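Methods: example folding runs. The two proteins below were folded one after another, and each record is reproduced exactly as written to the output file, sequence line first and structure-token line second.
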Amino acid sequence: MSTVTYGLCALVAFLCTCLLLRRWHLDRYRLLLWSGLCFGGFTLNNVLLVLDKVVYPEVDLAIYRACVALLSLVVLLYGLIWDTE
């Protein structure tokens, strides 16, 4: 059951990434870009979670997942603070 949950989380994050970046491509509103990049990182984080827990359970990828999540949030924080219109 956890495998399905991890996979659905990755799929939803990927769909959010696609929708945000597609809308940014049409409107060129910068907050959509930063949010889309952040969700792209969340997608990568969820893929690493699937790899960590399902594919390679003997390998600990927690530090890599944490670094990807932190980098994703830093990208969004940059966009929220320094890229105001």
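Second run, written to the same file directly after the first:
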Amino acid sequence: MRRSLVWLVTALALVAGVVAPAGSATAPVNTAPPQIHGQALLGSSLRVEPGTWQPDTVALTYQWTRDGAPIDGATGTTYALVEADLGTSIGVVETATDETDATGTATAEPVGPVRKPSLNLVEAPSIDGVMRYQRAVTADLGRVQPTAGSVRYRWLRDGKEVQGSKPRYHLDVPDVGHRLQLQVTYRRDGYRSLKVSSPKRLVLQRVPVKKRFTYSVRTKGPVTANLATFKKLAQGTYDDPRGWRAAGYEFRRVASGGDFTLVLATASMVPTYSSACSSTWSCRVGRYVIINQTRWQHASPAWNRAGRSLRDYRHMVVNHETGHWLGHPHASCPGSGPAPVMMQQSKGRGGCSFNPFPLPSERWTTR
């Protein structure tokens, strides 16, 4: 009975690894795997924290791996990440060897994928200057750490590119009422590119609003022109920073009434407003700013001979007749250059060139 008990205790000890049969070696047993410390960033170094073993007198060696494959020469406790590691996972295999040369291995949890480090934004890009029509603004490109090797940027209007890498941007007609922004891309070898956008800034008219006028739109006669287009283009003329808006006058369309009435009339109906009006041209009578449908659709012969656009003619005729309502009389050519918008340009220009917008000298009103 006693002999059987001794045999059982010995068998249990062998299973537990406490006692080994004579002439045999038991491999070291890993009780906690090694761990990798550090960031999986190109140019950084990783460090292995040893695992724990039984017995604790084992000697440890290492083999670093890339996606599970050994890395030549990478057998230290640290490993410096190189270009070949980009996009891969880095691991390490720890080998424990005891006094009898028995070995055991344990694998650390891999880190990765390895990526390039980021540039750190220190100062955000911005647009410097007054955001008004005809002004120029400049690009402040901001700063990153470490310093960028190259900086590229572009100007965006409502999210769409309008100008490439130029330090100054001149605010023009298409910018008014829209939001301008800088998009800057920083690059440096060994780092991920960083793309940053500045805050959006609204481009304003050249001058603030000084006077506000309201108007309604009516037709006279069997009008065939598209009325929605007429309304849109007329309002576009009033909003254009080259027009009466440059004097600080704001025009807003209302459903009825208003300070004046903008009329699209068939040619034969224009004279019904006054005997001073002609079926050939547009006219203004009292509160009525009357646009001749024929002129609206086809411009004037002189305008067409000069190769000017129908859109510019429409700007001109709305500006001219509204100018009369504002209190401006007819003007004459000062000798050369763009004609005053209050000049009867289709009847003769006296050396001046066609011009659809009021000159700076015309931007006053008696109202």
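Comment on the second run: The longest strand covers residues 211-220.
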